[in-house]
Specification:
Blueprint lengths: L4 H17 L10 H4 L12 H19 L9 H9 L7 H14 L4
Helix pairs in contact: 1-3, 1-5, 4-5
Length: about 110
């Protein structure tokens, strides 16, 4: 197991918790069509927070639970900056968690 795995798992929990706190968590499951996008962050079919909830977090949880190799790079903070810059709210805690994840995954980030 990668020595970063426990810390990655913690960031995933923090991201989910903050999304719930901010009201960004949805009980409505996107359609298979929406989930099958080939575009980065599924920008053509999903709002960013839905992509995080229904694609990013589940895939990362599988990686953590099965002890699979961690990704070599992450740019989720940059994408989150672009998305949340256009919205009102206190996104700093969520952005901080995305940044922590990026720094952990991408040593040169």
């Amino acid at each position: 197991m990668d020595s970063r795995t426990p810390e990655v798992a913690e960031f995933l929990l923090l991201i989910e918790q903050e999304m719930r706190t901010q009201g960004l968590w949805s009980d409505k499951v996107p359609t298979e069509h929406d989930l099958s996008s080939q575009e980065p962050f599924s920008v053509d079919r999903l709002d960013f927070e839905l992509w995080v909830q229904w694609i990013f977090l589940p895939k990362m949880k599988v990686i953590v639970e099965q002890g699979l190799p961690l990704p070599n790079v992450s740019g989720i903070r940059h994408m989150a900056d672009q998305v949340f810059a256009q919205r009102r709210g206190n996104w700093k805690p969520l952005l901080k968690h995305f940044e922590g994840f990026d720094l952990l995954i991408s040593p040169s980030a």
